[in-house]
Sequence to fold (440 residues):
Amino acid sequence: MAEQTVRNNVHLIPTPTEERALLEALQSAAAAEYKPTPGQSTLVVYYDEKLACEASSKAWHRIPPTRQLHLDSCINAALMRFRGFQPGYLWILPDAGRKKSPIPTTFQKHIRAPYNDPPPAQLVYRVVMDEDSIRRRKRRALAFVEQTENLYVFCNNTQVDIPDQRRKHYEGTNHGQSLAGVRLEPYAHVWQMPLQQKKDAYGAEGIRLVGGPAEKDDGPTFGVEEAAEGGGDAPPAEVQAAEHAKPETLVPFCWHGFPKLFFAELLHVNNVGAVIDFTPGDGNFAAAVLERGGGTIYTGVCHTEKHCMLLRDRLVELVLQGMGKEGHVLYNPLYVQHLKKLNSGKVVHIGGDANDDDDADAKPRPPALKKLKATPNAKQEPDESAARKSEKKKAKKEKAKSAKKVKKSARKDRRSRSGSRGGKAASSSATSSSPSMDTD
Fold:
């Protein structure tokens, strides 16, 4: 059921090596087939520089460099697929908080030819992250917190494609200049995996070499209740020097991604019917699409095939968790009843096979249900209710058996008594009928 939900709404493809192959992949993408209704629904093309790659050292602290060729390829392929800026199409691109963003110039470069359309309308929102949530991610107290980032939105016509809509999860409307109060999740709550597995998922192009000095930093915190000035659990030493980290060290898949609530707001306020995401990252945008429902289609262009596999399994796991959690939008009471029935001593939740730990590259499995196989030598705990029923049944049989014996014995006694009375009567009649003898 969960796998079917993910398969119906989320489609993941690896990034092709050539732009022509990327365009061909977009031609058949499920989300690209969606036709928005201007003023009522939209199709969103999303690209986040922070998720396009990762710095090879101090990734939690450094904003990764811009993958200019990748950005050019994605924007150009999407423009060719949709033949320019058509009504109902929104292009949303965060700028990673850079002082000089390459996004506006990149768009200007690609829209000049071969299209004769007028330049697209451009809006710039100011995303303001929650200060405390940023401080809680740092071991060292920050004298000054950088908590803003620009969100570029391009469309055909702002009045038609971005109608006035009140926000659902944050204050204000989409006609306000800022989107404030975006609370970042603690690193303990984001998607984590072994470092070597993460590197394989990112691929050769996903981890970028960086140079130059970085601001002194004591590393991230993974605890939830740490104070702003530190005091949480110290991060592993391997994480603080990513280039010397151990392959089995658990690290977040994305250090700088937006939370799921941010994407839920984008879906709501823009009446999104389909999403093409060139930077799926840890899958928060895809998860928001699944929780929104309503037939919204999501196509994500992942780093590699392994990234696709891992992310798909993660989404299935998130759907299963939602189906079993009361009050969740994906809650399914029939599924919960099924779990209770199966978990009554016959099945258990198992996260994977016993040998999964031996192979770091093995495909991770979401929590699944597997029947316990009975073995000849296995010791099974007695079922109290079954034992009681068995004892009652046995006692009932014994009672019935003894009652039968009593009845049988009573019948036998009656027969024997009636037989003895008949014999005495015959004897007396014979005596009375015999001739009397005269004595001399």
Summary: The radius of gyration is 38 Å.
